[in-house]
Amino acid sequence: MKIDVKHTAKLANLPLKEEEVKKFEKQLSEILGYIEELNKVKLENVQATSQVTGLEDVTREDTASPSLPADEVVSQAKKKHNGFFEVPAILDE
Predict the structure, then answer these.
(1) Cα–Cα distance between 60 and 62 in angstroms, integer?
(2) Measured between alpha carbons, how far is 76 from 84 in angstroms, rounded to an integer?
(3) Four-point Cα dihedral 59, 63, 65, 68, nearest 10
(4) What are phi and psi of 35, to 5 degrees?
(5) What is the distance between the terminal CA atoms of the chain, rounded to a whole angstrom?
(6) Are 25 and 5 in contact (CB under 8 A)?
(7) Burial of 47 (0-12, 13-18, 19+ CB in 10 A)
(8) Predicted local distance difference test score (pLDDT) of residue 76
(9) Structural domain spans, the chain
(10) Cβ–Cβ < 8 Å for 83, 70
(11) Is the dihedral of CA 37, 42, 44, 46 positive or negative?
(12) In terms of C-beta density within 10 A (0-12 exposed, 13-18 middle, 19 or more buried), how is residue 86 classed?
């Protein structure tokens, strides 16, 4: 299957060099060829599954606990102002 990489790149607003176009054409053709092979697999009698390990929920219970006092946390800051962390500005006005 032939893919129009230039058209696809244009739609995605991706500037590609000519050598990249050739490289991606080859890669995408190989991927689609592999997908065609996968589509040949007979799956009529195979039951769908979402996971195969048999594991169940292994996370801990989400419980609330007291946090550190704000003054203790801010006391560790290099720069602070009125009880808050002071950081360099990142936005222009």
Answers:
(1) 6
(2) 11
(3) 50
(4) -65, -40
(5) 51
(6) yes
(7) exposed
(8) 87
(9) 5-39
(10) yes
(11) negative
(12) exposed
pLDDT at 1: 67
Yes or no: say if 5 and 16 are a contact pair by the CB < 8 Å rule.
yes
- For 22-80, how does the pLDDT look when each residue is reduced to its tens digit (9 = 90+)? 999 999 999 999 999 999 999 999 888 888 888 887 788 889 999 999 889 999 899 99
**Which residue reads 């060099």 in tokens?**
17
pTM of the predicted structure, to 2 decimals: 0.46
CB neighbour class for 29 (10 Å; exposed up to 12, middle 13-18, buried from 19)? middle
- pLDDT at position 31: 93
